[in-house]
Amino acid sequence: MDNSTRMPSQTSLFQVYLRLRPPIHPQMPKQKLDPWLIVEPASPAASQSEGPTKTFPTHITLQPPNDSRKRAIERFGFTKIFQEEATQLDVFQETGTADAIQSVLQTGRDGLVATLGVTGSGKSHTILGSKSQRGLTQMTLDVLFRSIGEKIRRPHHPDLPTDTELLSSLQVADPSEARIQSATTFLESVYGDGDRARLSRAQTPMSRAQTPMMVGNQTHKLPGSFPCSPEDYPSTVASPLPLSHGPNLSTGTPSSIRMLPSIPETDPSPEKEPWRIPSKAPFLTRLRSLRKSPAKLQVVKDTASHYVRRPLLPRPSTLPQYPDVSPFSTDIDPHAEYAVLISMYEVYNDRIFDLLSNPTSPNAPPMSTRQGAALQKGLLRRPLLFKNTEMSSDRKVVAGLRKIVCGSYDEAMMVLETGLTERRVAGTGSNSVSSRSHGFFCIEVKKRPQLQGYGAPVVPAWTGGTMSIVDLAGSERARNAKTTGSTLAEAGKINESLMYLGQCLQVQSDCQQEGSKPIIPFRQCKLTELLFSNSFPSSNHATTYRSPQKAVMIVTADPLGDFNATSQILRYSALAREVTVPRVPSVTSAILGGGGQGKAGQNGRNTPQDLHNNYFSAQELEQATNEAARLAEECHILAVRLAEEEINRTEAELKLQAAEEKLVDMEQEVREECWSEMEERMEEEKERWRMAWEQEKMRGEEFIDGKLEILEKTTQITIHEDPVTEARVEELERENETLRAKLRALEQEMQMRSPSKKSRVTAAKSPVQGLVLQETSNSNVATNPFLASLRLRDSDATIKARTSEEEFKVSDVSPRKLSLRSSSVTRSAMEELPPPPPPSTVKKQRKLTTRKWDLGDP
Ligand SMILES: Nc1ncnc2c1ncn2[C@@H]1O[C@H](COP(=O)(O)OP(=O)(O)OP(=O)(O)O)[C@@H](O)[C@H]1O
């Protein structure tokens, strides 16, 4: 294949570079001997243009690992390929990141650098570096602040009050409804309060791993250690550099290339680390207490070595200072002033979350509570919208981000480190510190003409561009990564978004090869929208024209990693692709070139030459040859088809895998939905039961009320009846008394008339006694003979008494038992007596009393 015809176009939306990761364990003999990724040497033309020392190849060949199937060999073209020994500086320099920074500074054109690859292939290493090497983000920040130098406007200065004009003017010029804050205020809000620092999700692992192996001539060092002598630096650093312990204090920017002191971590004495940020008391007090307490620092060191985040203020001097990027400083407008704003966000499950909006507040609930735990997980973080705003009608922006105005590289580093502690990372089977979200680190450079004096009438507005550096989450196969549960669901989302990104890149690559204008389907997910929406010139001509961003995609690959996953990524990201099907050795050539010399072989079989010599004519041989050629051709066609099928199969397998992961995702969603529906139904059912119970209760109460009413009525009757009865009793008693008085008068009269009848009258003197006897007689007379005789005597006396002129009999003092036989008295008494209470009322009363007792029982 001719390289020149297949070289990727320089006008693509993304320049695509390939970076190969060095092996973690240097000895891997089998795979080393049998590599499936072969880098083609750089073409002579490229070598010439690059100069004698640095040449970068542009093509690789993927040779499927040896198995029984004859799979197609694929060849991919990239803008440049960085082999295993390429340094961070090589990548920074050769990907044109420095040029992109220059464009941002000078023309305000946006720049974007992103990494794409299988999990563990070195994306985060490239973007964020490791504990000993800086990544593209840190190098970009360093170049920016070095280039701007004294022209930087900072909101806080050690000797001056807060520059509120700067913050308010930046706020006014911001089109994204951002919340602009100074770095000092932001850092104070995060680290000023120990409790808040603890509440942040700072206990999750760091987003960067330690470098397992230095490439090139770097020595292998212990994790977390720093190069401490000039020999530790690679040959790209030409000469020993002057030592400096930190940035220039007056400006806050580094005055020279900084090399770390030899023992910065174990001996953090103030003299050796004189850096400070232009800030006020609480922040510095905390910092000083940190320095005074080696124990605390030891804790920091220990936790860091276990990938546990430090809830303490990051110290720029302990962060890697290598590689040195001082040669890349660029010219700026000397009559302008600049401001640098940093914002960070992540795309997680297709939603955008601010990494600098500390979700915790001083009143946050403790971690032990459910709400506190939810807070830690970041569940309460509010997703942001990617939308058009009033000031950005032609271009979508992430609205509502927190943007931090940084006055120096050190401030920017502390903000970056703080934001990284909020990023989602997790340990998987493929990578111990795997990014679970797509991280976007945006550096906005604002510029405006410098005011020539305080009398200037109009303050010019800020303009500028943004340099975005993106660390994408890696695609992964669930089987390899051994992910489960929510991590598996995350992987599903990651793979889905990367699939959409792959589609966009593939469209770009196809259009490049066909020479047509690409229509990129970038609105399928947040990730592709964020990456591609700035790739096109401004659509609104009424506003100022904006050039499309300068975009670079660095594809990372591990040549000793998973062939299928890597080939899939390369297939859609490469700018050029070619498939070659391995040819089956031709039968014809075998026959014609047969080496037999007319003798049967040792196994007793004849060679074709023997047959030709002995049995076949030339014509027959010709026919056989033609037939063999035809069959060979057929075989070849079949082999091509088979290879195509193999590729299709691999693609289908990957799609299936993506679908499976999506299915897992969907299953989880469905489960959650079912659960919530069930909960809803349970609630409804509970409510229904509660209502029914209420109704039943009301009915019961009504019933009781009814009963009580009846009871009350009957009680009223009784109450009404009693006074009447008593009145009657009194009346009858009075009558009784009257009668007794009459009786006594009669007795006296009788005594006066006939003394012989005295004894008889005496016998009848006590009618009450007689009455008592008569009363008891009813019940006892039958059983008691004494009472029976008494009764006889009494009845005799009564009979005798009847013989008097007025004969009467009182049978009882009780109104009920009182019976007056005297015709006159009986008549009048009967007339005056109320009718006796019907027996049923008493009975009913007794019954009700019983019922009342029944109802009273709950
Ligand atoms: N060029 C390199 N030189 C030295 N070490 C490297 C290089 N690239 C990657 N590594 C190391 O490989 C390991 C995995 O790298 P890294 O975490 O950057 O992978 P990743 O692609 O970001 O993975 P993920 O997508 O899961 O986040 C780390 O230990 C990292 O330091």
The helix/strand class is alpha/beta
CATH superfamily of the largest domain: Kinesin motor domain
Cα(first) to Cα(last) distance is 98 Å
Tell me the domain tally: 2
CATH architecture of the largest domain: 3-Layer(aba) Sandwich
Give a short account of the largest sheet: 10 strands, mixed
Distinct small molecules bound, one entry per kind: adenosine-5'-triphosphate
- The parts where pLDDT drops under 50 for at least 5 residues are 1-8, 194-207, 209-310, 594-606, 761-783, 786-790, 794-830, 840-858
Which of globular, elongated, flat, extended, rod-shaped describes the shape? elongated
CATH fold annotation of the largest domain: Kinesin
Overall mean pLDDT stands at: 69
Strand content: 5-15%
Helicity range: 40-55%
Radius of gyration, Cα only, in angstroms? 53 Å
> How many H/I helices?
26
Q: What is the subunit arrangement here?
A: single chain
**Care to count the β-strands?**
18
Characterise this structure:
By secondary structure, the protein is α/β, with parallel strands linked by helices. It has 2 domains: 3-23 and 33-230 and 240-580, Kinesin motor domain (Kinesin, 3-Layer(aba) Sandwich), CATH 3.40.850; 736-856, no CATH class. Helix content is 45%, strand content 12%. The protein contains 26 helices and 18 strands. Strands 1, 5, 6, 7, 8, 9, 12, 15, 16 and 17 form a 10-stranded mixed beta sheet that branches. The protein is elongated, with a radius of gyration of 53 Å. It starts with a helix and ends with a helix. Residues 21-22, 117, 119-125, 130, 209, 211-213, 215, 431, 433-435, 473-474, 556 line the site of adenosine-5'-triphosphate (ATP).
